Amino acid sequence: MARSYFIVAFFFFAVVFVSAQEKVIPNNPNYKFQSGNEQNNQTVIRTSPSFTPHWSFGGNVGFSFWNGGTDLLIAPKAYYNFTPKFIGGLGLIYNYSDYDYGIYESTYSAFGGSISGLYRPIPFLQISAEFQELYVNQDYEYLNTDFSDDYWNSALYLGASFVSGHFAFGFQYDVLYDEGTSPYSSAWSPVISFYF
User: Fold this and answer.
1) Span 47-76, mean pLDDT?
2) Residues near 155 by beta carbon (within 8 Å), at least 6 away in sequence
3) pTM for the predicted model, two decimal places
4) Tally of domains within the chain
5) In terms of domains, do 39 and 60 share one?
6) How far apart are CA 126 and CA 192, in angstroms?
7) Per the domain annotation, does 2 fall within a domain?
8) Is 191 within the bounds of a domain?
9) pLDDT digits (tens, 9 = 90+) for 15-35
10) Per-residue pLDDT tens for 154-192?
């Protein structure tokens, strides 16, 4: 079912991207005062939407190394500016973690995609909603016994960020968070994003 959301979203982005607007260009500066027959002889052209730029790119990169563990996150994104206040985005996600606690060792990798909507009611505030679908592969060893698990994990993040130029910082919360299946240790996570 999650894959169908991505297909619908991709189709929606494609339709908006190729859409155009009609604009009437008067042939005569006094066209308002022309007779009805003369007003029908106006030029109609197709133009692209007036707001620019349409596309921007960004994403998240994170890594940490600590006693017994390594975390790595790579998540590039492409954003389309529908209006100056509303932005939609598509992204890819790769997450890798490795933990070693002596009697317990765990290695997992997760990869997938995301679709997001960003709204800026005022220039420095960004409200976001992002749906992620990740395929998780987890291998772990406990007391010399090996286990392996592969599954799909869905997440829906709602958040708010402070925006300054090409940088956004804030927090988001996963309303679908499940401690047993999520590749993340908490439903809360920081938002640190760059746009260019």
Assistant:
1) 75
2) 131, 132, 134, 174, 176, 177, 182
3) 0.67
4) 2
5) no
6) 12
7) no
8) yes
9) 444 444 444 445 555 555 555
10) 999 999 999 988 888 999 999 999 987 887 778 998 888
